[in-house]
Amino acid sequence: MRRTLRSVVRRPLTAAVLTTAVLAVAATPALAASTPTTTAGVTRTIEVQTDPINAPGQTMSLQRVVIQPHTTLVEHFHQGTQMARVIEGTLELNVVSGEVQVTGRSGNLRTFTGPTRVTLRRGDQLVELPPVVHYGENTTGKRVVLAVAALIQIGAPLATPTQPASASITLATEIRSEQQILTTLPGANTYGWNHLVGTATLDGQPVLCDMLGNVNYVSGAGPFFGFVTFTFADGSQIATQMNGKAIPHADGSSDVVAELSIFNGTGRFAGQVGSGTFAGHRSTTVGAPVESVFVLSPVAAPPTTTTTTAR
């Protein structure tokens, strides 16, 4: 029997998760609950899913995840932000790199930076800040049940396996504005879009870095988002979506940092996904060239084959 939205939201999720989910569902039509899928002792059911209009290119889902006793998940990351609450059992979370935030049953908030190991018990809540690399373990004789909310890149797998660091691609270049349309309002609020281009070098060959960015700054600080396309000497491309922030300094310069989600590619990167980072520095808050470093970790998209569990 198909679940209705009413039956889904009765599950014991946190107030924050429920509020976010209801707002997202109100924005666009929700999809029906999916058939549970099982992989290596982990059963994941998407209870409801939608593409919120206030998060372009992203899809939001509420999930129920069941991890069987003595099961270790593969090392992975999510192309977006994931939140979870432990409904049953005890989970060992191994943070390989990046940060996670854990709120205990008493309400105390703690931040853990990898490499580290965190024990999560019933009632604990977790926020995985992208691009955190991690994996969970159920070392007990009882199952672990999680209520999960995720906001990830449309088309991305729910979890993307990592690859060796040696396979990452590092590109350093100065990107310069080719065209921009920016509007400044009272209160030092500047918003609009900027097209920046630069050429890096990889193994002696040029790599074109083409960025389309949207900004909304107040006194040089604030969020930006957009897309970065990397075109290699053989014509292969990596397509990424970018979400970041600008951090101004007292001397008038600013730093920019962002997470990148690889959602596709061409040539030798065809169909690949993955994650990355962007870090840059410029002498002024808006408009100056940006000394930039991009780190990309493309991986083959996991197979879409699923196994239906008995109900």
Describe the protein in words.
The chain is mostly beta strands and 311 residues long. The protein folds into two domains: 5-156, Sandwich (Jelly Rolls), CATH 2.60.120.10; 166-300, Beta Barrel (AOC barrel-like). Helix content is 5%, strand content 60%. The chain has two helices and 20 strands. It has helices spanning 5-8, 15-27; strands at residues 37-39, 42-50, 58-67, 71-72, 76-77, 80-88, 91-103, 109-113, 116-120, 125-138, 144-153, 160-161, 169-185, 189-202, 205-218, 222-231, 237-248, 254-266, 272-282, 290-300. Strands 1, 2, 3, 4, 6, 7, 8, 9, 10 and 11 form a ten-stranded antiparallel sheet that branches. Strands 13-14-15-16-17-18-19-20 form an eight-stranded antiparallel β-barrel. Strands 5-12 form a two-stranded antiparallel sheet. A hairpin with a 7-residue loop joins strand 2 (42-50) and strand 3. It is globular. It starts with a helix and ends in an 11-residue tail after the last strand. 33% of the residues are buried.
